[in-house]
Amino acid sequence: MAVEFGRGGKGMISLELAKKLKSAGLVWDQKIGDCCCFTNRITGEEKFPYFVNRAPVGMFYDVDYFWLPSLSQLLADIEARGYSWE
Questions:
Q1: Which tens digits make up the pLDDT trace of 35-64?
Q2: Cα–Cα distance between 26 and 68 in angstroms, integer?
Q3: pTM surpassing 0.90?
Q4: Which residues lie below 8 Å from residue 34, measured CB to CB, with a gap of 6+?
Q5: Residue ranges per domain, the chain?
Q6: Residue 75: half-sphere exposure toward Cβ, Cα within 13 Å
Q7: Of 3, 21, 51, 71, which one has the greatest count of Cβ atoms within 10 A?
Q8: 3-class secondary structure for 15-79?
């Protein structure tokens, strides 16, 4: 799976890839400086990107949050699952 270039800027994964990673089980351990986006379930409005300035980000019932991990964060998750990469 390649890292795509999303609307948010160079080197950022797309919202579509973030959704696939979340549904595949990628868990977000929120940290200050993380990049995410969120979608309002009622209006469909997207906030993209949003940089976490305090952790944890408040989770609201009508909002879906999607983490936009960096390449190093993705690779760390791969290793944590017992896989290797080259």
A1: 888 888 889 888 877 788 876 776 777 888
A2: 11
A3: no
A4: 28, 51, 52, 55, 67, 68, 69
A5: 15-80
A6: 7
A7: 21
A8: HHHHHHHHHCCCCCCCCCCCEEEEEECCCCCEEEEEECCCCCCCCCCCEEEEECCCHHHHHHHHH
